[in-house]
Amino acid sequence: REGRHNPECLSWGIDKERVLRGRTALEVYFDFMRSFRVEFDKYFEDGFISMIEVGLGPCGELRYPSCPVKHGWRYPGVGEFQCYDQYMLKSLKKAAEARGHSIWGRGPDNAGTYNSQPHETGFFCDGGDYDGFHGRFFLSWYSKVLVDHGNRVLSLAKLAFEGSCIAAKLANIYWWYKTASHAAELTAGYYNPCNRDGYAAIMEMLKGNGVTLNIACADLNTLNQLDVFPEAFADPEGLVRQVLNGGWDLGLPVAGENALPCLNRVSYNKALDTAKPMNDPDRRHFSSFTFLRLSPLLMEKQNLLEFERFVKRMHGEAVLDLQV
């Protein structure tokens, strides 16, 4: 909105625009994926590369770059809508004219700034414009552009990586999840207020492309978030539950990863509970888990023993209890 450039990803507005030395963004993405597949052919053929996670936005996640730290965003700000380059604005104006309301061809002017809180804005507050006629039109367009972008890129990924398992990662924008508007999710492109399932269209798109859903924050505890930032109305467990159920109900394979460094049994048990829910009547579980945040601390004896125990439990092995 302020004219600054974000280097994290290309605007979805140029997916089909020939502005990259005569090529569209989709052509560039496909050429890169095909080049990667050819260059690492031996690793694919020998089975060393078992899954490809296709980047669909900042941090590889299917979302808008709505909360960039380099532009001043700090947790738990609501973030800002990212629809102000000339190509996105052209798409918005076209959608507004097709709806018969050309005046709607602009972003909301009362959505605050990166570090606003929902109640401070006219758009995200309870009963705010997000749930009015213009707000619903804008959010529907904004989220559809994101889903369409993901669909186009994943369709090409299936061609570039034919025969390989492909994954797509969703962000866990869990702050303000316990408010009516779910403001931070809205600016990220997830149209998921309390009266609407904003992940259903994404799950359908992933299902249509036959890809695995990857979700982070398997290790986060809602109570911990409420202790540290009670004003953020965060609920990582509630969000993970919604996304997991949405994927599993459609029969999607689901993969996961941890958000924070995991070194103790409490963190490992939380990840295990998310990956393999004990009380799920359908015995649903993650198809794979990526352990992130490796550090020299992991090599310390007690930490390594806990990690070994975690890996064995993740694979369903019975383990002897260790002293915590």
From TrEMBL:
Pfam families: Glyco_hydro_14. Coiled coil: none annotated. The keyword Hydrolase applies. Its EC number is 3.2.1.2. Transmembrane segments: none annotated. GO terms for molecular function: beta-amylase activity. Keywords: Carbohydrate metabolism, Glycosidase, Hydrolase, Polysaccharide degradation. PANTHER family: BETA-AMYLASE 1, CHLOROPLASTIC, BETA-AMYLASE 7. This is Beta-amylase. It comes from Stylosanthes scabra.
